[in-house]
Each structure stands twice: as C-alpha cells, then as structure tokens.
Specification:
3 helices; about 95% helix; single chain; mainly alpha
C-alpha cells in the first residue's frame, strides 16, 4: 500500500492508477465512517434507554445531562452522514471518469 502511494508521489503511475488508488482510499474511509456511525447509533440507543429510566425516576438533572449528550451525538452523526454523502459522490465521479476513460481508450478499436 505504501509503495503505491510512493509511486504516485514520484510520478511513476499514470492518471488511471492514481484515480484507482484514490477511489480505493475513499472506499476505505467510507467503511470507517460507516463503522463510526454504527457505534454512535448504538451509543445513542443506550443513552436514550437510560434517559427514559432516569425520567421515570424523576431525576431531572441527570436527564438534562443525558439529553444534551444525545443531542451532541446526533449533531456529530449529522456531520458524519453529510461527509459520507460527499465521499460517496466523489467515489461515484471517480468511477464515472474511469469508465469514460476505458470507453475513450477502446473507442478507436471499435471504429477501426
């Protein structure tokens, strides 16, 4: 993996290889984001259940603390989901560029 990045920096790879490596890295980042979003969803569910039990007990101070933590988690999730959408769009554009490049490369052979 590191050798591929070194080759790109030194200019030993063509643009198609650079785009392929970039797309692979984006997909890895998307997988990490999915994992983090899943962790936050689990944490939010746990805190929400805890919030319900604290409200039933009548402890308003703890309820406010837990509710603010849930709000923070939801805010973080909102930003992560927005970043996820941006990365998915970028990956899709790279895949389209690679596809169009393949067509352009094969087009002269088709016309011959």
């Amino acid at each position: 993996m590191n050798q591929g990045i070194i080759d790109i920096i030194k200019g030993k790879r063509n643009i198609r290889d650079k785009l392929s490596v970039a797309n692979m890295r984006i997909k890895q980042l998307l997988a990490k984001l999915d994992h983090q979003i899943h962790i936050l969803n689990d944490r939010e569910k746990i805190l929400f259940d805890k919030l319900v039990s604290v409200i039933e007990i009548g402890d308003k101070i703890r309820a406010n603390i837990i509710a603010s933590e849930i709000a923070q988690i939801r805010e973080i999730k909102k930003h992560l989901l927005a970043f996820h959408v941006v990365l998915e769009n970028l990956s899709l554009r790279i895949e389209n560029i690679l596809f169009i490049g393949d067509i352009a490369k094969d087009f002269p052979q088709i016309m011959a």
